[in-house]
Design a protein that fits this description.
By secondary structure, this protein is α/β, with parallel strands linked by helices. It has a single domain, classed as Ribokinase (UDP-N-acetylmuramoyl-L-alanine:D-glutamate ligase, 3-Layer(aba) Sandwich). It is built from twelve helices and 14 strands. The strands form two sheets. Strands 1, 4, 5, 8, 9, 10, 11, 12, 13 and 14 form a ten-stranded mixed β-sheet that branches. The two termini are 23 Å apart.
Length: 339
């Protein structure tokens, strides 16, 4: 797909995901299915599928696994000129897919990856951000350790130097933060302080601010959003989803977008027959950003984010590769064959 215009730059770690087939546990596995993912890469691929120009900045291992990861982004239509290589290993994670009342379980094996050891000067942030419309980063990069924190800070500083706004997805990963002597509240607050767009719900904001919010439903979410806007003067937009789990294959989801003066929350929709939940939050972020780039209203951002997230549940793998026609044809009540 050929795209034009100012690109979105996504920065983060590409990962390889290994999954036992057929919802098996690892103790039952005799083979593993491999897909490429990573939160920021998922956003990049989803935006590119919708026709938005996207660059990806980062580092992969200089070996066949790194080349496999790059090939996945290339195939998705993402510009990988600023995806550097370095000696070392690729970060991995293992997914045991849930079924029925059994939840999915993720086990990370990413310590010591080429990305985790990278120095900020190994990535051409200035080149990647030249002429860019937006930088998208997440809280996963600083969570992987001191080097990841240095990378995240360098990316955000480069965006500030280039006058490029920042979108930040909290993506809180407790196991990563707990693996080193970290201060997630201070780190995330520092990075969100530079952001114009935040992806995070009332629980994320509660973690950041160290306070609980009263009420329930939309009122609590609005109270949390107002607290975040008061704490972070640069913040312009907050987007989030609310998810109620019925079983591992049946969820109810609503989407919400807040600005300082107004907000919009969608009705809840049923998402059934779930194939793969991983990457659905990234698909939501991409849907919101797709409409933000088009200068849509809050309702348009929330509806498109929800639609793309719902559709991602039907796709195996980390990445949402839904195109504009599939997105336009989305109907939460649908499912019949299109002829």
């Amino acid at each position: 797909m050929v795209t034009t215009g100012a690109p979105v730059v996504c920065f983060g770690e590409l990962l390889l995901r290994l999954t036992p087939p057929g919802a098996r546990l690892m103790v039952q596995a005799e083979s593993l299915e491999l897909v490429v993912g990573g939160a920021e890469a998922n956003v990049a691929a989803a935006l590119a599928a919708l026709g938005d120009p996207v660059r990806f900045a980062g580092i992969v291992a200089d070996n066949p696994l790194g080349r496999r990861a790059r090939a996945a982004l290339d195939a998705a239509g993402v510009d990988t000129r600023f995806l550097a290589t370095a000696p070392g290993r690729m970060g991995l994670y293992f997914l045991e897919a849930g079924a029925g009342l059994r939840p999915s379980v993720i086990t990370y094996d990413r310590a010591g990856s080429a990305f985790a050891f990278a120095a900020p000067e190994a990535i051409d942030f200035a080149g990647a951000l030249a002429g860019a419309r937006l930088l998208h980063v997440s809280g996963i990069t600083p969570a992987i350790g001191p080097a990841g924190l240095a990378l995240a800070r360098a990316a955000v500083r480069a965006a500030q130097d280039a006058g490029v706004p920042v979108a930040f997805d909290g993506n809180y990963r407790a196991r990563l933060w707990e693996s080193w002597d970290s201060d997630p509240r201070a780190v995330l607050s520092e990075l969100i302080g530079a952001a114009s767009i935040l992806f995070g719900n009332h629980r994320d904001i509660s973690l950041l601010l160290g306070e609980e919010f009263s009420g329930d439903g939309p009122e609590r979410r609005r109270e949390a959003a107002e607290a975040a806007f008061a704490e972070f003067p640069k913040l312009e937009l907050i987007a989030s989803t609310a998810r109620h789990l019925i079983t591992s294959t049946h969820h109810r989801i609503a989407a919400r977008v807040d600005r300082r003066a107004d907000c919009h929350q969608t009705d809840e929709i049923d998402v059934t027959g779930i194939v793969d939940r991983i990457g659905t939050g990234d698909a939501f972020a991409a849907g919101v950003l797709h409409q933000w780039l088009a200068r849509a209203d809050l309702a348009g951002m929330a509806r498109t984010g929800l639609a793309l997230a719902a559709l991602k549940h039907s796709l195996p793998g980390d990445m949402c590769l839904i195109g504009p026609l599939e997105l336009a044809a989305f109907d939460a009540a649908g499912g019949d064959v299109r002829r």
